[in-house]
Amino acid sequence: MLEVFIFATLNGLVTGLLLFMLASGLTLIFSMMGVLNFAHASFYMLGAYFAYSISLQFGFWLGLIFAPLIVGCLGAAVERYGLRRVHESGHVAELVFTFGLAFLIEEAIQFFWGPDTKNYQSPDILDFPLFTLFGQEFSAYRGFMIGVSVLIFIGLFRVLTRSRIGIIIQAAITHPNTVANLGHNVPLIFMGVFGVGTALAGLAGVIAGPVLTTFPGMAIVLGSIVFVIVVIGGLGSLAGAFIASLLIGLLQSYAIASDVGMPDLLNFLGVSFERDHPLNDLWTMTLPQIAPILPFLLLVLVLIFRPTGLMGNREE
User: Nearest to residue 224, comparing CAs of 17, 19, 48, 15?
Assistant: First the structure.
């Protein structure tokens, strides 16, 4: 039982930190520009595919460096030549624009790379067990994923709260005219932030591609979860997104690793149903079966009891 708990915790940390890597870019974009980018997970998918193509010729590490840069440049171009024009028409137009962009990116990926799953592999240098515990191995690549995610959180937090760039960005959120009067190019700041946010999504794709497989539907798998994280953590809160990501990762991991279900609860309460009861399928469910919907149940509870999120301080 102890080994199950330990490895469920480790796997939950890997999943949670990966989700944070993806959600951090969306949180950064929203906190700066007030835009909920529906195409954010599509940039995550682009990162995986660009890294896959680069790795075929130059290896994993160059893909890790250049794929996020390419995705970030594409994101900056989308903000400069698309989203900036749409922004004048309000938030509904922004949502429609990013929603359509997500479909466009998915179709482009299938056109250029095809509909099949790509054999995107982790680097050979990390293909060994980081440690062995209770006879089970924890791969070095998963440890690498944890390390990169933690470094991103520390780096973003320090940049946004301790650096001059962070002060300018924070000021541009609430007082853009004042920042502009001080000689700063606010539209350029917005474009840079959007580019960095999409680059973070691309980096998450580079890291996750070898583990979660690289295929055209990978954006759909994590896309909705990212928005759940942003809302649960508090719109625009980086620390909230970090906590929510870990919470969801651990919650799902513990649920999958457990063998507890409704039958155990009913037996504990002394309740029983006939096999032909209309609700028999409902009362025989187990936690692993409902693990995929647990984040959404948590979202409902947070919206009921704390609508601003765990660390949100205002309604948006």
Answer: 19
Q: Which domains, and CATH codes, for the chain?
A: 2-305 (1.10.3470)
Per-residue pLDDT of the chain (316 residues; tens, 9 = 90+): 677 788 889 889 999 999 998 888 888 888 777 777 889 999 999 999 999 999 999 999 999 999 999 999 999 999 999 888 887 787 788 889 999 999 999 999 999 999 999 999 999 899 888 888 777 888 899 999 999 999 998 988 888 777 787 777 777 766 777 878 877 887 888 888 899 999 999 999 999 999 988 999 899 888 889 889 988 988 778 888 899 999 999 998 988 887 776 666 666 666 666 666 666 666 667 777 788 888 999 999 998 988 888 887 654 4
**Can you read off the two tokens belonging to residue 167?**
């002060």
Phi, psi of 175 (to 5 degrees): -135, 65
Give the CA distances from residue 70 to residues 43, 82, 99, 213, in Å, rounded to whole numbers and listed in that order. Answer: 10, 17, 21, 20
Compute the distance between CA of residue 63 and CA of residue 40 in angstroms, rounded to an integer: 20
DSSP classification of residue 81 = I
Burial class (CB in 10 A: 0-12, 13-18, 19+), 139: middle
Q: What is the helix (H) or strand (E) element at residue 80, kind and residue range?
A: none
pTM for the predicted model, two decimal places: 0.87
204 neighbors 47 (Cβ within 8 angstroms): yes
131 in helix, strand or coil? strand
Position 251: which residue type?
L
